[in-house]
TrEMBL record:
This is Immunity protein 35 domain-containing protein. InterPro entries: Imm35. It comes from the Bacteria. Residues 5-72 form the Immunity protein domain. It holds the Pfam family Imm35.
Amino acid sequence: MEQNEALQLAVTFLARSQRDDEPPLAIDAERVRESNGLLIVPYNSVQYLASRDVREQLLDCWPILVDLARGDVRFGTLDERYLWRNPSA
C-alpha cells in the first residue's frame, strides 16, 4: 500500500473515532513517518496544530498505525510506544 493511501485510511479512521465531547482533531502531517512496515500517523487538536502552543496540546494521543502490507488501521498501544518514541527500532 502506498503512503498516500494509508494516510487517507488514517484520516477516515480518526474522523470515525472522533467523539462529540472531544475538540476537533486532525492528523499532524509534519510528523507522519514510516517505520517497521507501519505508517505512524500522529494527531492532535486542530487548535494545537495551528499554533504548536504546548498549552493547547492534547496529552496521551497514541498515534494511528496503518499496516502498509495489510491496510489494517488502529490506534497504537502502550506496548508499541517504542515505535514512535524510537522510530529506528
